[in-house]
Design goal:
elongated; 12 helices; 3-stranded antiparallel beta sheet; alpha+beta; 426 residues; 8-stranded mixed beta sheet
């Protein structure tokens, strides 16, 4: 959510930054509506002041027994009541229109975000590890089905497309991955583990920016709740409508939850396999910081996500997204892309974003310094640490051998005692 006062004071900045996201011309519209709103508020205040003064004069006229003046003033007050009703309605309608438009406008990019329209303009920041040398690599679908541990047909019979049944040792591996990621983030990186609700109300999704614009990407229940698309929603909303002591910041939270996405805008994309599913597990990282902490915290969060891939010895690269490729709430985003041998390219496995005070304004989440008089909006950050399903895909493909066995990464051995390779039952 944006502060209309900031748009009023620096219209050129907002016009430029929204244009970088392909949304030109919105500032002029906002300022025109804002001018009408302020005019209605001024007229309302003037009418209220005049009514109060006239009401006072009625009493004075009656005290003087000047009934003619009192009658005239009472008629004037009645006229003012109509003016007040009219201006109050203009204020309500115009204010609602302004809030509706502001709620649908994305965050503006940080100054160091590169310009560009899509992923082709993202910048590679760094690269870690060398792609595995695998002759004629099989994709994860073939590998999993030959092992008898991925069943897309059974999932389709009960749930439709974009679902999978994971069995046996691969189900153990999936469970181990989630546990490993949580342990790494809580025990080494200082995140607090949370088990949050996965059903939320409209207000929670509005707070993090999924509503109202992206309703079609979500699953809605019959009782008016929504299934979370990411634990970012639940974790970030822990501070909604709260005033937090600044000395408690930063708050670092993590959760392993199922996530649900309709993939409404992904028709025809990644229909084979586990890359883009309606239901998947993900370890989410969320930080709540003071404004001056958020840039440093963002870099730290990216490092925390990268450490998962390093421990698993999976080659990856870190990308700084251009303005046109960032999400709705993001001010600045880094994507981690893991190497997928069957596709001979890197694919996104984590997205880490600094949202500035954009979500905090929508949630009314504030901080107060010790001894300070006022409050200010906190900054919120979120990132995947990591998407478990895509990490499972990366392990299957990068750790395959010619016989179709899958080596278990060394970092997971403590979670899978005695299991060094995943192979079909004999």
């Amino acid at each position: 959510m944006h502060d209309i006062r900031a748009i009023r004071e620096t219209p050129e900045l907002y016009e430029k930054q929204w244009a970088a996201k392909g949304m030109s011309g919105r500032v002029a519209e906002l300022l025109e509506i804002d001018a009408r709103l302020r005019a209605a508020q001024t007229a309302l205040q003037a009418a209220q002041a005049e009514r109060n003064e006239s009401s006072k004069k009625i009493g004075q006229a009656k005290a003087r027994k000047d009934e003619a003046e009192a009658t005239r003033l009472m008629a004037h007050v009645e006229t003012l009541k109509k003016t007040l009703e009219e201006q109050a309605e203009v204020e309500r309608e115009t204010g609602e229109q302004l809030r509706h438009i502001l709620a649908a406008l994305p965050n503006i990019p940080a100054p160091d975000v590169p310009p560009g329209e899509d992923e082709n303009h993202n910048l590679e920041v760094r690269r870690w590890g060398e792609p595995f040398a695998i002759a004629a690599p099989k994709d994860h679908v073939d590998l999993g089905e030959r092992l008898g541990m991925l069943d897309f047909e059974a999932a389709a019979r009960m749930s439709g497309s974009r679902f999978v049944v994971i069995k046996g040792q691969l189900a153990r591996l999936e469970r181990a991955l989630g546990q490993f990621m949580l342990d790494l983030q809580t025990q080494e990186h200082g995140y607090t583990e949370v088990s949050p609700p996965i059903l939320v109300r409209d207000e929670a999704l509005f707070g993090t920016g999924q509503l109202p614009k992206f309703a079609e990407d979500l699953f809605h229940t019959t009782d008016g709740r929504w299934l979370i698309p990411t634990a970012e929603v639940s974790l970030t909303n822990l501070v909604r409508e709260r005033i937090i002591a600044e000395e408690e910041l930063p708050l670092r939270l993590t959760a392993l939850t199922p996530c649900f996405r309709s993939e409404a805008g992904a028709s025809g994309r990644d229909t084979r396999g586990m890359i883009r599913q309606h239901q998947f597990y993900k370890v989410e990282l969320v930080s709540i910081t003071a404004p001056e902490q958020s840039e440093t915290e963002h870099e730290r969060m990216v490092g925390c996500a990268e450490s998962v891939l390093k421990r698993l010895e999976l080659p990856f690269r870190t990308m700084l997204l251009c303005a046109g490729d960032m999400g709705f709430s993001a001010r600045k985003t880094y994507d981690l892309e893991v190497w997928i041998p069957s596709e001979n390219r890197y694919r996104e496995i984590s997205s880490c974003s600094n949202c500035g005070d954009f979500q905090a304004r929508r949630m009314d989440a504030r901080a107060k310094a010790a001894g300070g008089k006022g409050t200010r909006f906190v900054h919120t950050l979120n990132g995947s640490g990591l998407a478990v399903g895509r990490t499972l895909v990366a392990i299957l493909e990068n750790y395959q051998d010619e016989g179709g066995r899958i080596a278990v990464p060394q970092a997971l051995h403590p979670y899978l005692p005695g299991l060094t390779h995943i192979e079909a039952a004999r």
